[in-house]
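Sequence design from tokenized structure. All designs in this work follow the same two-part layout: the structure record, then the generated sequence. An example of the structure record is given first.
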């Protein structure tokens, strides 16, 4: 059984999509070992508890680089305690430290609501909408030391319609996120891939 650790900061719809995909066999031989949030009030923690999963809040204590490092050390310790093999950032709205990346080399995935490298950072869907793109989408990628930067596992696109608002576009992207993340996790867990430079290639 592959043990997944989900990190989230908000409502957790991507976490729920991953949970459904495990339940219906799109991701097989996997279980969610723990759901962790930096926000004790995150809706995703509540959903996890109601599904009978282990859900833990680890808020950052204090400010500054030392507090950030201490927080990531606590995250690494919890993920290690729960025997997590693959860490899935699912709306985890924090930049993780290099120590975190080193603790799980090539074993942290993130989903981002844009076609990277376009529109990294916060509010990617609004950025894309305001920029006037005609095609938008989402990206699942490995996490490295740089923000929204690691090797891309897969991307899904959506059209942008003239009558869209940033909100209707975000909702269309989110539907694709819910398909993309389980698909990417399943591919990565299969181990049937190689990376050559920045290129992820199935084999
Ligand atoms: C998702 O749209 C995810 O792509 C985005 O936060 C949302 C979380 O929604 N993540 C980022 O912007 C990371 N840079 P959810 O809590 O319903 O899964």
């Amino acid at each position: 059984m592959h043990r997944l650790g989900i990190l989230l900061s908000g409502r957790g719809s991507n976490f729920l999509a991953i949970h459904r995909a495990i339940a219906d066999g799109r991701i097989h031989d996997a279980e969610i070992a723990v759901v962790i949030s930096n926000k004790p009030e995150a809706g995703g923690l509540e959903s996890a508890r109601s599904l009978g999963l282990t859900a833990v809040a680890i808020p950052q204590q204090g400010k500054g680089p030392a507090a950030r490092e201490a927080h990531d050390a606590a995250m690494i310790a919890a993920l290690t305690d729960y025997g997590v093999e693959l860490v899935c950032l699912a709306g985890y709205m924090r930049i993780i430290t290099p120590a975190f990346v080193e603790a799980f080399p090539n074993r942290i995935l993130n989903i981002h609501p844009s076609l990277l490298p376009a529109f990294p950072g916060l509010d990617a869907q609004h950025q894309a909408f305001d920029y006037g793109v005609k095609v938008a989408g989402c990206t699942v990628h490995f996490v490295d030391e740089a923000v929204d930067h690691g090797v891309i596992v897969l991307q899904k696109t959506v059209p942008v319609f003239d009558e869209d608002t940033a909100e209707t576009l975000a909702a269309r992207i989110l539907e694709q996120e819910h398909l993309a993340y389980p698909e990417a996790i399943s591919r990565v867990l299969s181990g049937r891939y190689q990376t050559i430079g920045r290129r992820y290639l199935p084999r």
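Residues 1-105 form a domain with the Rossmann fold fold (CATH 3.40.50.170). We note this feature because it recurs in several other targets discussed in the main text.
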